[in-house]
Amino acid sequence: MDQSIKAYIKQLVQEAIEESAGSLNNLPSSTGRKQYVIANWKMNKNIQETLDFLQQIKEGNGVEVVVCPPAPLLYPAKLYVQGQKKEIQIGAQNVHQEDKGAYTGETAASLLKEIGCSHCIIGHSERRQYAQEDDATVNQKAKQALKRGLTPVICIGETLEQKQQDQTEKVLTKQILGAMDGMDVSQVVFAYEPVWAIGTGESATAEEAQRIHGYIRSVLEYLDVQNAEKVSILYGGSVNENNAQEFASMTDIDGVLVGGASLQVDSFQKIIAVFAKGA
């Protein structure tokens, strides 16, 4: 790592630690680096539409394909792919940080695991905005997910205002440190989703995304030099079949978290095919 970049990261890390009173913990472990294409359906599709989609979708050929439908559709989706013996994973869009209790409307990680989920999106900007989730909550949810055998897909990203104020690196550093306090970087997947690009039709350029992904990996390297290169970092934010190839060609982009384009089988399948070529 370039020494000037390392010094800059160290400065941002120290500032974030002072603000949050967090701590850095390097725990021994490692995982392989995978390519992912993850569908985040948000609050879309019914049971029949879900089954039709899963019937048509093809497997990833070396790419981990994860479909994250609304919570009521998780179990029927898992039953279908299991019955058809399809190598498609089912993931949740959210999880609660406690495993049981008086939390109306929430879902425990243990239950998600029991019905067959493998992954869970945590810290999506819409959850941060509408449910006021902060970095500490993201950390607690990720720990609970790991405890129950789910792979956390931790979302980070800056707003347009933060981008315009040249705060991107500082915001991302704080989010990463907050999410990873007391955790092993090799156990999670990160998704960089610039808030200004989500659902707007505007995405970061592939070169811009690569630069940010490289920075994220540098922060992870600061936390755990042995495992940082093994962590999958995905890009999300108006990803579609037309720009997927550009993102797939970048060294530090290990897949995509797809919103609107994942609702159409043809579009989603084309995105999978793009990443399967390099898998």
Automatic annotation (TrEMBL):
Report the EC number(s), separated by commas if there are several. 5.3.1.1
Q: What InterPro entries does the entry give?
A: Aldolase_TIM (IPR013785), TIM_sf (IPR035990), TrioseP_Isoase_bac/euk (IPR022896), Triosephosphate_isomerase (IPR000652), Triosephosphate_isomerase_AS (IPR020861)
Could you tell me the superkingdom of the organism this chain comes from? Bacteria
SUPFAM superfamilies cross-referenced by the UniProt entry: Triosephosphate isomerase (TIM)
Q: Which biological processes are named by the entry's GO terms? A: gluconeogenesis; glyceraldehyde-3-phosphate biosynthetic process; glycerol catabolic process; glycolytic process
Top EC category: isomerase
Q: Where does substrate bind?
A: 40-42, 199, 238, 259-260
Q: Where in the cell is it found?
A: Cytoplasm
Q: Tell me what reaction this enzyme catalyses.
A: D-glyceraldehyde 3-phosphate = dihydroxyacetone phosphate
Question: Which CDD domains does this one have?
Answer: TIM
Choose one Gene Ontology CC annotation of this protein and give it: cytosol
Which residues are listed as membrane-spanning?
none
Q: In which pathway does it act?
A: Carbohydrate biosynthesis; gluconeogenesis; Carbohydrate degradation; glycolysis; D-glyceraldehyde 3-phosphate from glycerone phosphate: step 1/1
Q: Which GO terms describe its molecular function?
A: triose-phosphate isomerase activity
Q: Which residues carry this modification: Phosphoserine?
A: 238
The UniProt entry annotates the active site at: 124, 193
Family under the similarity heading: Belongs to the triosephosphate isomerase family.
Job of this protein = Involved in the gluconeogenesis. Catalyzes stereospecifically the conversion of dihydroxyacetone phosphate (DHAP) to D-glyceraldehyde-3-phosphate (G3P).
User: What name has this protein been given in UniProt?
Assistant: Triosephosphate isomerase
Query: Origin organism of this chain?
Result: Sutcliffiella horikoshii
Gene encoding the protein: tpiA
